[in-house]
From TrEMBL:
Native organism: Paraburkholderia translucens
Protein name in the entry: Replicative helicase inhibitor G39P N-terminal domain-containing protein
Keywords in alphabetical order: Coiled coil
Coiled-coil spans in chain: 214-241
Length: 249
């Protein structure tokens, strides 16, 4: 729908709610309705509202209307590909670019994986991942790709560059100074200045522009390892909690 069609959309929604003898949602809720249905043309939205009225088997929500609209590709990895991405996080040197659903599902599977039960971990992961993406698709939520950093600086550059090329990350997501810092084990192989140059070259290839230089920081190897490990532990705890909250939906 187009911005100028907002009033017409509200009018159609008002008629639909009146038909089922329900009050129109408050303004903030109407904003959610618009956000979720705005990607579809107005005629399709009107048709979907009419289709809902012919059934009325569930409460009138954006998700209920979305059932009658064409499915949109969201580029989420299938379960097997998602598992292949997630299991890389078992290696703390490895940088992983994954969706929030993959991260949450891995938080559920990781304790099982650490018991050397790979089959059980994969089953737990796929069950959780399937539930998470079904819910996200039902409410029209598109995937959010994020970075989980590893110790290996060379791999951080390689993985994030590939993610930008594949359209999974935006340039501003990799223009973070700490991404350019060498890990404790790779100062001899790839220092921060070389990584920055690689990132500049990538930006030139994609948008014809370079990135600004980042301040180089030197830290003791033990301290840096502890900081990275703490970040990963905090992320794992956060996604575990989010996974538990998602299970209550």
């Amino acid at each position: 729908m187009k911005p100028e069609e907002q009033k017409a959309f509200i009018d159609e929604l008002t008629r639909t709610f009146h038909t089922i003898h329900k009050p129109l949602p408050q303004a903030d809720a109407l904003g959610v309705w618009w956000t979720m249905l705005e990607p579809f043309p107005m005629p399709l939205v009107i048709s979907a509202l009419s289709s809902y009225l012919s059934v009325k088997d569930v409460p009138l929500t954006p998700a209920a209307v979305l059932r009658y609209l064409p499915k949109r590709r969201d580029e989420r990895p299938e379960a097997d590909e998602a598992w292949a991405i997630a299991v890389r996080a078992a290696d703390e040197r490895e940088t992983v670019v994954w969706t929030t659903e993959i991260a949450e599902a891995w938080a559920t599977a990781q304790p099982v994986f650490q018991l050397d039960d790979v089959v059980g971990a994969r089953m737990a992961f796929k069950a959780t991942y399937g539930r998470l993406i079904d819910h996200a698709r039902a409410i029209g939520q598109f995937p959010q790709w994020v970075i989980s950093q590893g110790f290996d600086a060379a791999r951080r550059v390689e993985v994030t560059h590939d993610a930008v090329r594949n359209g999974r990350l935006q340039l501003n997501q990799v223009r973070v100074p700490e991404l350019l810092l060498a890990g404790p084990d790779d100062r001899m192989s790839l220092n921060a200045r070389e990584q920055l140059q690689q990132l500049k070259l990538l930006c030139q290839q994609i948008v014809g522009a370079g990135t600004q230089a980042a301040t180089q920081k030197e830290q003791a190897a033990k301290e840096e390892r502890e900081q990275f490990a703490e970040k990963k532990r905090a992320l794992a705890e956060e996604v575990r909690k989010r996974g538990q909250e998602g299970g209550k939906l």
